């Protein structure tokens, strides 16, 4: 088994009095396509910014590729690609010129940069557009170029912040295929999305961020079991649900799942078992996400 690509422990972040992340714990296995689901303002981008060293947490730790995001920033940066952040695409240049320029900035020779640009324009189906200025690109082409640019020098972990927001269905599916191909090459993909369907199609691990906490996590099948199975809810003294864990409801399964969590739980945590609905699980998600759920 590969080690975890990302390990987050008790991560907290506030902006002024607004507490955005309220003590996150999360592991992302190496080689996974991991989807972080959550409504607008849940803190998804904030978490990506912490993981990619752009901002520091107030408390807790995050390790990316084994490196601490505060104390070992440079090592983290060398292990990750971040779409649309480190690599600013210049609208006045063509797609190819952008790729060559970023290739040169990443230390490739002119010939290597040209070769890598050609490879990436083919991989991201931008052949026809490579010689056109980026300002003439559609939203889908622009996203594909962003992704290509971030992959000029391949890194083991790729962050994609809402990669398909605003894209039409066919562009979205084309981008999903490309993300799946990257995962086949062994890249760990950490993406955020507001679309449950997207997480379901792409990801092998999903976590739902709402009100500053991970309210549910697991494989897509486990999350779906939340709809039809039972849910163990762990509730803190403020009546907040701190964990929602899918279970068959049988005594052995409940016992095993509680035993796994027990060492990390404050003793005053209360346990309840309930029949879930999709609305319960994704209660904090946006209307858009809820529409996707009913498709
Ligand atoms: N630099 C900042 N200063 C003040 N508040 C901020 C800052 N960055 C984010 N926030 C606030 O933190 C909250 C979480 O924002 P964030 O962008 O992380 O959410 P998100 O889940 O990515 O949302 P979206 O889906 O809308 O992109 C929001 O209420 C936002 O207004």
TrEMBL record:
InterPro entries from the UniProt entry: AAA+_ATPase (IPR003593), ABC_transporter-like_ATP-bd (IPR003439), ABC_transporter-like_CS (IPR017871), ABC_transporter_ATP-binding (IPR050763), P-loop_NTPase (IPR027417)
Listed transmembrane segments: none
Pfam family, one: ABC_tran
Keyword set, alphabetical order: ATP-binding, Nucleotide-binding, Transport
Domain ABC transporter: 6-236
GO molecular function, one term: ATP binding
Gene3D superfamilies found in the cross-reference section: P-loop containing nucleotide triphosphate hydrolases
Keyword ATP-binding applies: yes
Keyword Transport in annotation: yes
Protein name: ATP-binding cassette domain-containing protein
Natural source organism: Paenibacillus aurantiacus
């Amino acid at each position: 088994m590969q080690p975890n690509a990302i390990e987050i422990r008790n991560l907290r972040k506030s902006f002024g009095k607004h507490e955005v992340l309220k003590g996150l714990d999360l592991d992302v296995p190496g080689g996974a396509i991991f989807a972080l689901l959550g409504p607008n303002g849940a803190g998804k981008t904030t978490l990506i910014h912490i993981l990619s060293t752009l901002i520091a947490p107030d408390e807790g730790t995050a390790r990316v590729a084994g490196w601490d995001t505060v104390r070992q920033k440079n090592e983290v940066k060398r292990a990750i690609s971040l779409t649309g952040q480190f690599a600013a695409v210049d609208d006045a240049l063509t797609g190819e010129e952008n790729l060559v320029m970023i290739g040169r900035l990443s230390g490739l020779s002119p010939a290597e940069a040209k070769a890598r640009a050609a490879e990436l324009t083919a991989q991201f189906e931008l052949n026809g557009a490579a010689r056109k200025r980026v300002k003439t690109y559609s939203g889908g082409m622009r996203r594909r170029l962003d992704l290509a640019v971030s992959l000029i020098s391949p890194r083991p972990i790729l962050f994609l912040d809402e990669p398909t927001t605003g894209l039409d269905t066919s562009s979205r599916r084309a981008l999903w295929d490309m993300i799946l191909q990257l995962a086949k090459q062994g890249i760990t993909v950490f993406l955020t999305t507001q679309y449950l369907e997207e997480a379901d199609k792409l990801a092998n691990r999903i976590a739902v961020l709402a009100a500053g906490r991970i309210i549910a996590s697991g494989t897509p099948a486990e999350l779906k079991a939340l709809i039809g199975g039972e849910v163990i809810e762990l509730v803190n003294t403020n009546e907040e649900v701190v964990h929602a864990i899918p279970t068959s409801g049988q005594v052995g399964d409940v016992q095993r799942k509680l035993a796994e969590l027990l060492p990390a739980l404050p003793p005053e945590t209360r346990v309840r078992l309930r029949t879930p609905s999709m609305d319960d699980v994704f209660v904090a998600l946006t209307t858009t996400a809820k529409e996707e759920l009913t498709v």
